[in-house]
Amino acid sequence: MDILTRRRFLIASGVVGAGALAAGAATLTLSDLLATAGDRDPSGRTLVLVTLYGGNDGLNTVVPYADPAYHDTRGELAYSPDEVKRLDDTVGLNPAMTGLHGLYGQRRLAIVRGVGYPKPDRSHFRSMDIWQTANPERPGTTGWIGRWLDGVGGDPRLAVSFESAVPPLLAGERSAGASVPVAGRNRRGGLSDPTLAAFAAGSPGESPAQARAAACFADLRSVDQMVAEVRNAAEDAEGAEDAEDRPAATATGGARTSLQAQLDLVAQCVEAGVSTRVFSVSLGGFDSHADEKQLQAVLLGQLDRALTGFVERMDRTEAGRKVVVAVYSEFGRRVRANASEGTDHGTASNVLLLGAGVRGGLHGAQPSLTDLDDGDLKFGVDFRDVYATLLADVLDADPARVLDGWRGRRDDLFVPA
């Protein structure tokens, strides 16, 4: 089910933010965002949420390579101690995550282990609803960032998704964030660059509507060029592992544009000083029921390159050094591999935090691989504790007002300002 179909499903069923998604959500252009350059408080932080749709296998992302139970239950899916990118004497990162391993060594990557919620649900849609509404007890009607947006005035430019539709997490009770889609903008063939440039140029004496049309065309053209450059670079780097050649996975969602392209647009907005405080981007395809090892390595390689390049770019400017990236998925996978060299839907997993302000290192205890809940990991950190910390330390908000009175918090994730 793609993002647009899922959005229609959510609106029809009333599960998440129906009123806001149906009436309040906006579709903007990059120019709309860039027009707000200089409107924000330069001391404020920016939050970038990266959703990994499909249920990323946390045990093969942050690998407990020294635990015999890992090798006993994973078989051919297990990574040997000499394959992983070691973090300490017990755990290491997936071999594809070389850039993030470097950031960890620089104390710019925080890994929160064993993150989940009570009575976990193994349905993609229900679990993602829980993560995006921050309401495990009952079906939510608004997203947690949408509720934050309600409390700061409801301007959709404050919370933006570079996806084809506004995700549920940006839908509030009275307002919703905006989408700035970057996929599907292929221009017509046969037109030369000078002709296309002429379409994008204004003319003396033209009407306001004509001027607006030219500006929009120029904006779309610049985005197309940026996306094409990123895609070409990714194809050169990935070769046979290009995203179009990887195995298909089911019910995963995620943007149709590469994560690197989405983050490049986020970077451009941050560097311009736009008013946006929250950006939502995504990568899909993690529903690895069969032949997982190669599929996940390709996806984690894409994630690694996109995040590493983004964090290094953000480190060059003062505004960029105030950016915090949070990476999550709707659930992890089962501890034991299945008969198809894959893993089935599980429970607790990892949340990754990146940026100059995070307290790098391992946070939370490694879940036991032998003391299980019906074959699944027991969570040790409630995801609402992580959200509360992001709300308080990044968005300067009262977590209890956004998270229905939730009082939990993590005091170990950020360096004091």
The dominant shape is globular
Query: How is the quaternary structure best described?
Result: single chain
- What fraction strand? 5-15%
Mean pLDDT: 84
Rg calc: 21 Å
Q: In CATH, what is the class?
A: Alpha Beta
Number of strands: 13
Uncertain runs = 1-20, 184-191, 219-224, 226-252
Biggest β-sheet, characterized?
10 strands, mixed
Report helical residue fraction: 25-40%
Q: What's the CATH architecture?
A: 3-Layer(aba) Sandwich
- Count structural domains: 1
How many DSSP helices?
A: 13
First-to-last CA distance:
42 Å
CATH topology: Alkaline Phosphatase, subunit A
Structural class: alpha/beta
Please explain how this structure is put together:
Residues 1-20, 184-191, 219-224 and 226-252 have low confidence and may be disordered. This protein has helices at 3-13, 18-24, 30-34, 68-74, 98-105, 124-133, 144-151, 193-200, 208-238, 259-272, 292-314, 383-393, 399-402, and strands at residues 26-27, 46-52, 62-63, 85-86, 92-93, 109-116, 159-161, 178-179, 278-283, 323-329, 349-354, 361-363, 381-382. The longest helix has 31 residues, at 208-238. It contains 13 helices and 13 strands. Helix 1 (3-13) packs across helix 2. The chain is globular, with a radius of gyration of 21 Å. The protein is 35% helix and 12% strand. It is of the alpha/beta class and 417 residues long. Residues 234-255 are annotated as: Disordered. InterPro entries: DUF1501, TAT_signal. Residues 235-244 have a biased composition (Acidic residues).
